[in-house]
Write a structure and sequence with these properties.
about 85% helix, single chain, mainly alpha, about 0% strand
Length: about 90
């Protein structure tokens, strides 16, 4: 019965249109997420520059980034594992 519905020209057009709507929505969602991630990373860098480095370049800056990165990765990996179990 499902096969007979997809062969109906009106249903086929609707199905195609719905696929296009879904693809477009996924594209807009991905773009919005990417924009937010870029802003997040910029704000993180800005805060490190202001609060830790006091607007100066520091030779230990790479070490700070590495330390922060390890701590954040550990925290968010653990969080994602807890959420995945739910």
């Amino acid at each position: 019965m499902v096969g007979s519905l997809s062969s109906d020209p009106d249903i086929s057009f609707l199905l195609s249109d719905l696929h296009d709507l879904l693809r477009a929505a996924k594209g807009r969602a991905a773009t919005a997420i990417n924009v937010e991630l870029v802003l997040l990373y910029w704000h993180i860098g800005d805060r490190i520059g202001r609060d830790i480095l006091k607007e100066e370049r520091a030779p230990y800056g790479k070490r700070i980034i590495s330390t922060l990165s390890k701590k954040l990765i550990a925290e968010y990996v653990a969080l994602s594992q807890v959420q995945a179990k739910k």
